[in-house]
Amino acid sequence: MKILVVDDEFHIRKVIGDYLRTEGYEVFEGTDGLDCIEQLKSRPDVDLILLDVRMPKLTGFEAIEQIKKITDAPILFLTALDESFDEIKGLNLGADDYITKPFRYDILIARVNSALRRRKALKPTVFESKNFKMDFSKREVKIFETPVTLTKMEFELLEYFVKNNELVLDRNRILDSVWGYDYYGDPRTVDTHVKTLRVKLGEYGEWILTKRGVGYQFKVE
Q1: CB-based contact 43:69 (threshold 8 Å)
Q2: How confident is the model at residue 169 (pLDDT cuts 50, 70, 90)?
Q3: Residue 72 pLDDT
Q4: What is the CATH number of the domain that holds 67?
Q5: Which of 55, 67, 118, 180 could make an S-S bridge to 32, C-beta 3.0–4.6 Å?
Q6: Where's the DNA-binding part (predicted)?
Q7: Are 174 and 79 in the same domain?
Q8: Model confidence over 202-213: pLDDT tens digits?
Q9: Is the distance from CB of 58 to CB of 33 less than 8 angstroms?
């Protein structure tokens, strides 16, 4: 799972990053609120954001509204020990939880794991629209109740599109998220799989829009 750690202090980012990587998480780093927003535009599939409150350029409080327009990933604010007002304000602004600095390893991991469990429990397992149905847990796609046979990669690519509905996704980000960061094949494999998906989905293939020079966007017309 992917976690974005945003803090203007390098040593804080390093400590948190090391903790999370030890637990098996994939970690990205941001230096301030503006950097966080720019990273999310190309990486909207993060599973959780650890966001410091006091940062230059754009604080955590100032950034959260824009962040929520890009992703529904849970946000855990990082606050100083004596800033209880910040904790209340952060929760009122839409943060899912907060962690006070300095923090203990076990507390940090427990809060992160708890937020991710809540997110998983709330995630929809089925997408339905206009006689199209995709069941993520059963890995099934049906059109007018007729099963559509997809390969493993076709299903995962379509799942990625559906879960990032209406977001413009560049090819490299699609490759990293669906094929994995260790994929070294031809980047045009995305185009090939999109082509076969469109054919198999028939009229619903029109929901996968080509964004020339960038990548693709899934949008229910």
Answers
A1: no
A2: confident
A3: 81
A4: 3.40.50.2300
A5: 55
A6: 124-220
A7: no
A8: 999 999 999 988
A9: yes
Distance CA 52, CA 60 (A): 6
Query: pLDDT-based confidence at 146, cuts 50/70/90?
Result: very high
| Same-domain check for residues 111 and 158 | no
C-beta neighbour count of 44 within 10 angstroms: 18
* Tally of domains within the chain: 2
Range of the domain at 203: 126-218
Residue where one domain finishes, among candidates 57, 92, 122: 122
In this prediction, residue 85 carries a pLDDT of: 59
Among 124, 125, 120, 77, residue whose Cα is nearest residue 101 = 77
